[in-house]
Design brief:
3-stranded antiparallel sheet; DNA-binding; homodimer
Amino acid sequence: MFKKLDPLLHSELRLAVMSVLLGLKDADFNYIKEQTQATAGNLSVQLDKLAQAGYISVEKGFEGKRPKTTCRITPAGIQAFENYVESLKDYIKR
Amino acid sequence: MFKKLDPLLHSELRLAVMSVLLGLKDADFNYIKEQTQATAGNLSVQLDKLAQAGYISVEKGFEGKRPKTTCRITPAGIQAFENYVESLKDYIKR
DNA sequence: TAATTTGGTTTATATTATAAACTTATTTAT
DNA sequence: ATAAATAAGTTTATAATATAAACCAAATTA
């Protein structure tokens, strides 16, 4: 009846991050931070979890002399997101 | 951008409970337990939280000599559910 | 009358989310 | 030149949540 919801995506901030990344080729740490209104600490932790799961890739580089972290959703991430949305329908269909 | 998701509803089991109750006039503890595949302990706790929030009403009575707990979604619960679904759209629109 | 089942509740534990504190390097001001 | 402020994160400590295991009381069955 109710499909299990992927616990990695069933989190307000991680879902928002995925939502931001879905629309874009990539996005840097601070852009995601602004869009999601997250604190840096929380965002850092949640990005790690998404990266561990292989749902996003995280590239740490530099822009000029400043560090710059760029994130990108992976094919596995897109698939997981789609599965999550599909599962959610069991719960919210009227 | 991303509306805050009601933390009471952003829970797999509580959302499933609300989903079950939305379709029905009322439902007893064990019916909800079957539908959601929850353990009794977990269900008991989550029903309490939904009742505390005023999203459901819980009536403890008897059927013959056996205790029987009947739950019903309240108007506030219906409204909260609808708001939750509306907020979710920010996150899952493609 | 002893064991089992029903219908739950309470409590303990594991997991998660979050913010606060911290680190390292870079600018800016003095 | 150096002190203060800012940027870009990370680590750690705490609070909140979810969950299952243990428990309880009454009823039923063996």
